[in-house]
Amino acid sequence: MPEAMDKKPAEHKRKTPKKISKTYLENAALYYLQRYATSAENLRRVLLRKVKRSCAFHGQPEEEFIPLVDALVERYKTVGLLDDGGFARAKAASLRRQGLSGRAIMAKLQVKGLSPSQIEAALKTVDEEHEDAEAAAAAAYAKRKKLGIWRVRPADPQKELAAMARAGFGYDVAVRALKED
Q1: Are 85 and 118 in contact (CB under 8 A)?
Q2: Cα-Cα-Cα-Cα dihedral of 71, 74, 79, 81, to 10°?
Q3: Cβ distance 127 to 133 under 8 Å?
């Protein structure tokens, strides 16, 4: 029997969390920012999850580290590492290109901790580039999901309209997207 067959799969052991310190939080925040574009509130949530996990493991009180997290996020906002407006514009543009409706974009960005006013401003900026951005997004969605003129097999038009409605598109926009060439 080959050696590979003899070995049992290694059990997945969860790493023990490191003790929280100012340096650890700063390194964790910078590492996260290297890998992901994010909002200030989302970074705060990520760091607080680390604090909570570490404090639970090491028996420390979480309350003493919350001001450290808040100060770190504020410092990064001041320095320019965190820009909620820029993040909102970039993410809204990306989601528009993917074919998401304004409502879906609003929901996704609110989950990231952005305010409705920031999201509306970002959507307005992104939608200025295109004459009818919602219709273009609906067409992109229909194409991606193979609805309307892109369908392979005959389908129920009501089901296609329902899919467009669930994606957040209005009736008029959905009908146009399903019939457009």
Answers
A1: yes
A2: 110
A3: yes
Q: Which of 162, 169, 176, 168 is nearest to 107 (CA)?
A: 168
Burial of 143 (C-beta count, 10 Å sphere; 0-12/13-18/19+)? middle
130 Cα distance to chain centroid: 23
Predicted confidence at residue 73, as pLDDT, reads 96
Structure tokens at 56: 């639970």
pLDDT in tens, 20-36: 899 999 999 999 999 99
Distances 16 to 11, 53, 103, 160 between C-alpha atoms, Å = 15, 9, 40, 49
Radius of gyration of the chain (CA): 23
Euclidean distance between CA atoms 74 and 79, whole angstroms: 9
Residue corresponding to tokens 């009180």: 61
Q: Is the pLDDT score of 122 beyond 70?
A: yes
Tokens of 55: 């404090």
Apex 166 CA angle, 163 and 171, nearest 5: 80
Question: What token pair was written down for 111?
Answer: 């989950």
Contact by Cβ (8 Å): 56, 7:
no
| Model pLDDT, residue 12 | 67
